[in-house]
Amino acid sequence: xxxxxxxxxxxxxxxxxxxxxxxxxxxxxxxxxxxxxxxxxxxxxxxxxxxxxxxxxxxxxxxxxxxxxxxxxxxxxxxxxxxxxxxxxxxxxxxxxxxxxxxxxxxxxxxxxxxxxxxxxxxxxxxxxxxxxxxxxxxxxxxxxxxxxxxxxxxxxxxxxxxxxxxxxxxxxxxxxxxxxxxxxxxxxxxxxxxxxxxxxxxxxxxxxxxxxxxxxxxxxxxxxxxxxxxxxxxxxxxxxxxxxxxxxxxxxxxxxxxxxxxxxxxxxxxxxxxxxxxxxxxxxxxxxxxxxxxxxxxxxxxxxxxxxxxxxxxxxxxxxxxxxxxxxxxxxxxxxxxxxxxxxxxxxxxxxxxxxxxxxxxxxxxxxxxxxxxxxxxxxxxxxxxxxxxxxxxxxxxxxxxxxxxxxxxxxxxxxxxxxxxxxxxxxxxxx
Length: 433
Known about the structure:
Elements lengths: L6 E2 L4 H10 L15 H6 L3 H9 L10 E4 L6 H10 L3 E5 L5 H14 L9 E4 L5 H12 L5 E6 L19 H8 L8 E6 L5 H14 L5 E7 L7 E7 L7 E6 L5 E7 L16 E5 L2 H4 L3 H8 L4 E5 L6 E4 L14 H8 L2 E11 L7 H10 L4 E5 L7 H15 L7 E7 L2 E7 L6
Parallel strand pairs: 2-3, 2-5, 3-4, 5-6, 7-9, 15-16
Antiparallel strand pairs: 1-4, 6-8, 7-8, 9-10, 11-13, 11-14, 12-13, 14-17, 16-17
């Protein structure tokens, strides 16, 4: 649609009828009504996540103006940004099927938030890279010239997100940012949402695109996880919205709250294959710490004693320390917020109490006997096992432990792999969330 004048999508009765018939609202008691097709919902950011991300901007010093999303999709993230910042939004959508839905959604979100930012908010059907035509159409429609305060973009990507190149994003980042650069100033406020599987080389490509257009501008790479050991969202925050540190990892709770935020410089976590000794303390951490380059930043706060990484690959990175993480030594007292942040990235932690050679059906009874004699009443497998074998072996261990455990005992334990061996650990209780 390049060269074609953008069209303002009016959220009138015809648009509402189309939205209701083509993409009915799905009930969500925690957010506003959102119209989206099945495909749009698969790609869209859930409302709680969108609002949590938007809330990170509440302390940013944004210039006056409108929130721009030149590839807005269902407009969910755009609406969340408008609601959190109480600013009007300008969304552009290339799809003629999606643009009317976005217009209805933006209007409904403004009504739901009981704010007046919807008065000057608009959705345009057109090419998001045609900056001059978009702004002319928008300003003519609202009757005033609003500058752009923040640009948010989540480009469309191929479904096989693990192999796509930057050239396959639509719109292309280099073309889009170059087109909008004259309207964003020397210190732009940008949020670029990207594939969480972007390689280090591809992230460097994005960095180079931004720094070429805005030399010396501050940039913060942000990883967000909702648990399950995976990165759910990767984004680059630029200029006025960048953090003071180049890397930021956020653990988002089920209710949309931040249970942990780690910031710092990217450092490689190096594994140490030295034998793990009985009496040392083993902590399995969220692999997102490794992926974000912030494992060392986390370790510096979490471990008040000598510590080393035993494993830095796979689903269960392992830290070995001389004392439990966040030691209760009064000299090393940390606040409640720091404790919550540290434990937000802990899968499980405990004291190494025994070493074993193998874990299989034949020696399950012997392992249960060892654990029981050490005062452990239940034992969970926290190591790599064939997925078809793991549940059966866990059930066998559970039965053996029930037969051996004394009444009213509640000391939990787990089995972990360290290097080429296995250990039994007595679990440390973690603070209540």
